Amino acid sequence: MALSMDRRSFLGLGALGALTAGAGLAGCAPQAQDAGAAALSDTGESAADAGIPRKEGSETKECDVAIVGAGAAGLQAALKLARGGKKVVVIEVGPSAAISNFAMCGGPTACETKLQEQEDATVTLDQIFTYMNDFSRGSVNSALLRNCLAHTGEAINTMLDLGIGMDLIPDTYGVGFRGRHMFQAGGEDRVGPLVADIQSNGGEFLFNTKAEKIIMEDGAVAGVQTDAGIDVMASAVVVCTGGFGGNEDMQLEKLNTKVFPLGSTLSDGTGINMVLDAGGAWDRNFAVLGNECGAVSKATVSPFTEDWHNTNEHLGYWLFGGLYTDPVGERFISEGKIAQFPLAVGGEALLRAGKAYVIMDADYYNAVQGDGIFAYLGQPASWISGPVADYYKTTPENAEAHLQEAIEQGWAVKADSIAEIAEAFDLPALEATVENYNRYCETGVDEEYGKEAHFLKAVKTAPFYAFEYVPSCWSTNGGVKVDSHLRAVDKENRAIPGLYVAGVDQGSVYSVPYYTNEGSSVGLAIGAGAYVAEEILNA
């Protein structure tokens, strides 16, 4: 039976209420960096290099395992450990687990789950591991990748048993299997059953509490120092604080550009810095889980409406595979690849460019408002997500007002010539780029990047339009180095006794660019949570 693909599948987003202003998460402006985050000093020395000061607490709390972060990995680890008889304390900087990226993400990729079995669409461990390991081209810890993926089905099935609803969605981007499980609800409705089960098994949560430092004694983990004056003492610590999307200094250090955070800005690299301070080491890969809804501009404050349209409809052109240039006006990629894989290729391409420009003529601009981009390109069957891309098209009722807003904010230009656009955005190579591009459109052959002919539409009819986009992401991927058992390692690759890192704080299982099968970031996080719990239980 053919599978239809709706807007929700393309978005990869679950509960529509998860990003409301009251949650203070995606769509908010970056928050001021916390004093405990990884700011760089005038000498370029990070907090981790200088050493996080030890401030002995006025109170201690004893447990078997301290978990830092109540997101995807943290909740899964706490659930399995508590059920396994371990005394667990979860330290969370937010007021509840509903503040995490996990509470608002679309849903994880997984293998060998109940939903896949029910729909006769089982993805085997070998199948998904081979796909993702091949995609990584040896840049990740292959044993760790397999270990995390092997526990994704367990994590999904556990959540289903707790009444957390999910749907197995179609193969949105044509990777060859149906791995993604979309959540039916977000926020408290999603995380509440996990929190309740953890608590019913003796687990404890310290909300509104920021972890500050891993307490080490004789080279081994002894606990976690917090800003609440409570030292949580434990012989095992699992760090999973959600990456560094809320830390501009760390973004600049590792990504060489600022990235607008669509996810929680509470994920500010604190967990990563605590592991480095305890003797851990950076891994090599740094990427982002890019914005599959289009792009953002330098003026963006809130990128999405309640029904997941872009707040300015002219942000959607990044998805459509037209003519894109770098900051000097030169093409830098086959734009069709961005349309095919906006999460992976699109996120990395914009990150690498720092900012990019979409250039079009009146024919293109008007066609998008009318029949839509998919029809304008001739409804190419090879563009798998093309039928739903028009969810982000510019509409006649909003086009003029949204264009004027973009022009006033300085990220759009409408002009009678390409030369005017080149001058407005200081793109010295743009005129030559457009001339060459139009020639490729006439011949149907992209001589530079081999873009598919159906994406080649000439830029020749005045007026002309240009839109400037900057990087944005749901989360960062990349952090400290771990071994295949999720144990943090030092600079000599020796495991630090008792110190584990799961989720996107560890950089050993996330590839560059982001994996092309959607849901990979949170899928690996839930798998890592279940896996690290098993490791601790069997230690």
Description:
The chain is of the alpha/beta class. Helices cover 32% and strands 16% of the residues. The chain contains 19 helices and 19 strands. The chain has helices at residues 7-11, 47-50, 72-83, 114-118, 125-136, 142-149, 152-161, 188-200, 248-255, 270-277, 335-340, 342-353, 362-369, 373-376, 386-389, 396-409, 418-425, 430-443, 520-538, and strands spanning 59-62, 65-68, 88-91, 166-168, 181-183, 204-206, 211-217, 220-226, 230-233, 236-239, 260-261, 287-290, 323-325, 356-361, 412-415, 464-469, 472-477, 487-489, 495-501. The strands form five sheets. Strands 6-3-2-10-19-18 form a six-stranded mixed β-sheet. It has a four-stranded mixed β-sheet with strand order 1-9-8-7, with helices on one face. A four-stranded antiparallel β-sheet has the order 13-14-16-15. Helix 5 runs antiparallel to helix 6. It is elongated, with a radius of gyration of 23 Å. The two termini are 47 Å apart. The relative contact order is 0.19. Residues 1-5 and 13-48 have low confidence and may be disordered. Residues 1-23 form the signal peptide. Residues 64-510 form the FAD-dependent oxidoreductase 2 FAD-binding domain.
